[in-house]
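not sure who needs this but someone in the group chat was asking about Condensin-1 complex subunit CAP-D2 from Morella rubra so here u go. i didnt clean anything up, its just raw.
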Amino acid sequence: MLRWHDVGDLEAFGEIADSPVQTTENVGNEAVPNVEIIRVIVSVSQDNPRYCMSELDIFIEESVSFDLSDKEIFCVEDQEVFDRVYSLFRNYATLPPSCKFNLVESLRSNFSVLLPNVDSLMRVSQSQDDETPVLDRVSSHRNAFKIYTFFLINIVIAEESNTVSNNNTKVTAATRRKQPINSWSWEPQRGRILNLIANSLEINLALLFGSSDPDENYLSFIVKNIFSMFENAILLKDSDTKDALCRIIAACATKYHYMAQSCASIMHLIHKYDFVVTHMADMVAGAEKKYADGSLASSLIREIGRTSPKDYVKDTSGAENIGRFLVELADRLPKLISTNIGVLVPHFGGESYKIRNALVGVLGKLVAKAFKDVEGEVSSKSVRLRTKQAMLEILLERCRDVSAYTRSRVLQVWSELCEEHSVSIGLWNQVAEIAAGRLEDKSAMVRKSALNLLIMMLQHNPFGPQLRIASFEATLGQYKRKLDELEPDVPLESSVDGLPSDEDAIKENGEVHDTDGHVLVKEQQESLTDSYLIQAGEGISQKDSPVPDVGNLEQTRALVASLEAGLRFSRCVSATMPALVQLMASSSASDVENTILMLMRCKQFQIDGSEACLRKMLPLVFSQDKSIYEAVENAFITIYIRKNPVETARNFSSLAVDSNIGDLAALEFIVAALVSKGDISNSMISALWDFFCFNVSGTTAEQSRGALSVLCMAAKSSPGVLGSHLQDIVDIGFGRWAKVEPLLARTACIAMQRLSEDDKKKFLSVSGTRVFGILESLITGFWLPGSIWYAAADEAIAAIYMIHPTPETLAANLVKKSLSSVFDCSGGNELQHEVDGGSASILTTVQAAKLSRYLFIISHVAMNQLIYIESCARKIQKQKVAKEKADTDAHNRHCNGTAPSGTLNDNSISTELGLATSEDAMLDNLSDRAEKEIISGASSGKNLIGHCASFLSKLCRNFSMMQKYLELQASGMLALCRFMVIDANFCDANLQLLFTVVESSPSEIVRSNCTIALGDLAVRFPNLLEPWTENMYARLRDPSASVRKNAVLVLSHLILNDMMKVKGSNPVYNLLPDILGKLSNQNLTRESFCNVMQFLIGSINKDKQMESLVEKLCNRFSGVTDITQLENISYCLSQLAFTEKGMKKLVESFKIYEHALLEDSVIDHFKNIISKAKKFAKPELKLCIEEFEDKLNKCHLEKKEQEVTARNAQIHKDKVGGTKELAGVRNIGEDSAESETAEASPVRKRYLTRLVRKIYVAGMVRLASNLECLVDDETEGEVIDPSNEGITQPINDSMKSQFVDLDECSRASSELTESEPAGIEVQSPTGPPNPDLRKAARKIRTAMFLHPQEVSGQSKGIAFVSVRKISFCYLEVRTTASAKRIVMLPIFVLISSLHEEGLPHHEWWLFR
């Protein structure tokens, strides 16, 4: 049998079962002891030992299962049956699966049979007259009901505990082998048991428990155990189990009103476990739906609303879970939440952004779902619409929340509302303008949400699929004229007046309009569709064409209002294009990706300016961020590639024609990538050839050039593309179409450079002579315009060096022919002398344009000759490497046999003798000699280009001539820079000339070209340029913005690639402390200072530099007393990325900045440092940080206390000095006062006397109600120093509350009279308070509490000195500390009022 110490679980059961041992039941009027059940439970038999496992198995199979299965369901009340069942329950964990199954199945089946009997018992009780048998049956049913519930719930708890322990145990191969093959499956039984318990709570238990609600112990037992199951995440994954648990809690909380405890448990679970949030929301929503009672949801909302906002700041995870719960609940019960939203709105003022995010989400759900139906009375609809309008206003206001998370969440909510068509047209443009403004938000997540909102608004806009401003303006103008015809005498209302917003939908008399913004012109839907705006846009050119008739005056007015709103929306989106261009240059990948998506959507809806912005997207293909490149590539494919190859070719051709040089480079990169991937098919290539060859009707010369440009780009990854139309390239590229479109010749030259090796050979064999003649004619001829000739000649010379077998011979002929076309060669010496003499007569016989072309040709030929020499050297080196590799492979093939005695032996001997190295040196020597001969020439003399180089140098030195012909100077300086890049000697000789021109030339084009050339020279001849480094930096101060921009690009390229060392300058982390000191003295605004320092600190990335800055900034605190400087230093410290070493240095430097911890702003910055450090700190460091935090707080409080003490001491010192000074002048004052008083008139004296008595007596009467609290003030408001009796010191602000507000006290009416010697009676006022007395009351508060007077209780004369006016008053006081305050209060009223009167100095003596 069971022993007493084994009945631990029965104690819990004793709380829910009727105890027959010591309790009684009322049957009629008699108390009958219940001795049938619980006595068996608590009975103890000391003779019988515990059952062993084998005996227990036999007992289960032969006894318990038989009793529970074959006997009636109430057999469990029998002592022996219950005792054995409980014994099995106590050993449940050790039972074999078959025994568990039999026990659980028996209990479950009996309980399922018991539930219908409860319903039948209800019917029997209603039909029988005798209550005694019925009560017995009720008692039996109730006990059996509780017993089955107890056993089943505890079995579930035990089984789940066993499951959790098994899951936590490490499973090994041995344990897997020990598991039985046919083990008992618990999961189906768990769901059936819990659903049975849920069914038991959903039946009518009123007769069973004697009331509509079961007893509290029973409900407590169930709720406690069910909520413990909610803590198991694995258990909640079973839908049947989860539904049963939710039904049980819903029944207990809602049906049986077990509300307070259930709400507390729900709130605990939500705060602690994030996985229960959705299930709790399902349970609450299910309770409201099943029982039509939302009390549980309302109670939870009120509980959340009552929680202090500060609690959510401390518990961030709990705040997040609560927020999710609110959003889920608003999604399921929108109408119920809308009626209780008022208790949650105050949390918008809390500091927890997570709660604010949740409330924003709740408002979004309510706006979308809680106000959809239109049923109900007009008054209720009016209230609901006003509620909706208030919610929308809150959402608009929260777009400017201080937290970026909340701002982002609000914009996301607006996106959801737009997607669900819950935003009226009246609010549409307001939301769009807010989203457009948030594009410049400092937070990337807010910008992302703003972009997504604009994308969603474009996708779901109610104005049509085309949003061109011209279309709206034309259509709007037509319908405005039509409206003027219909209503000539009434002025047209604006769109704001014509569009129905949610607020305008409510009339003053309570009537409600239809507020669906997308049914704006509901009456004319039959005749006016969304496609009308497209038709109107297509017909704007026909100004006199009639407009469709949309109906009567009201319908026309509504259409005009809608068109005005659409025009405003289109302009709003179009105005965001500059911001979108800036976002494409953002360092945040999300900004770039979402901006690209936004521009794609804008192009789809034909927003003005979107096409130009999309072209600026192309350079992003060079981004190192893979996501950005993929976004650009996907956008390019979506926008420009179509299923129809002709359309794709037309798009590509137009794009190439309208692109600049940078866009063409990006387009070439992406086209080559798409060709290699196969995204540009052969059919698209064929369509491009058709455009180039004018096979497509309507093709222009520009489209032909664009098609050839795209084909050249495709040839970069697939050179064979151009081989099929070589003749067409020559005929069309250099034929008559080249005169129509001059750039076509340049494009044809590029195409010839992209030919494959096989195509080049084929091309030379078929059309070589003709092509070179055409190229020579292009270079030396004048049939191309001057602005295009330079670009065409550049590519033509490059094509000659690319495809000609001996390009130097053809290039020499070009130079000679160009020279002869400029001037007669026989007069070259005379020209040279004229140039040397600085005469400008040369240009009277030689055209500047021709000379500029000649200089361009010769310099470009020289540059291409250098490139050609280098390519030949690389080709020889490549052949040499290939030969060595072939010899090595041959040696490896014969390594096991007899090696050939020829080549291999020679190579090995050459390697041993070092002849291979000498061959490389010889090749380098030949290459250097060839490069030098371009300019300097051979030893016998200068060559053709060398002669021109000396002429060019002298020409460029003739500044007076060059300044007259700026085009010639540009061409000459460009040629000079090219020669300098080629030859080191020529560079050294002309460096001073180059820097002189780059500083003094009036043309910014010349200065920009020279600046760029300096970068090339620094790369090629760094030693020559090193002494001129300062002059290169001087270009950063050039007056032209374009020159400064090029200088920045050149210098940054050189520095970042280690081609130029930064000298004479320290890194940012060394300069930062000095910059801090300079900026602190510049009177900058706080925001400007923070922006500058945040940018500078953001450029420091190394940990060592950060640690060094910590020490440097801490040293800056030394000797600084200015509050602004202390705040600036602490702000800079808070912006650093602290490491473990950095935190240690900060702690070690405590003594240096200890004096600065007095300021609240400084301590706030240190707290920010600590909060960030805790996130990365290890346990040991975290402990040190916490100690450091306590030390900071303690020091801050001590400094504050010291400041207060010092201030009070100074006040006391000033007062003591004033008293001594007053005593010194007292006698003089009395004597002078007597004479001055004699001069005052009697009327004036009587007036002042009445005034004093009036104020003093009224003040005493008002303070009468405070006497009790003032008498015992030694223990309530003041600290009395025993050694200094009478000196009072206010200890805190609570002393203020001891006094009744004087403004309120002044309302008490009193009537006091005093007689003057002259018979004049003064009566205190009654009724409303005197304004003068209100001023006096304020003076009392200021004087009494902010500037306390320290008075000795033993002194007889006390002097009060006004710090604002040279006046004094002597008062006779004999009182204790308590009474002194009573007297002093009206005295301060008196003094303050006399100050207001502006009394002269001598009249103060009238009142002593």
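also The chain is about 70% helix and 0% strand. if thats useful
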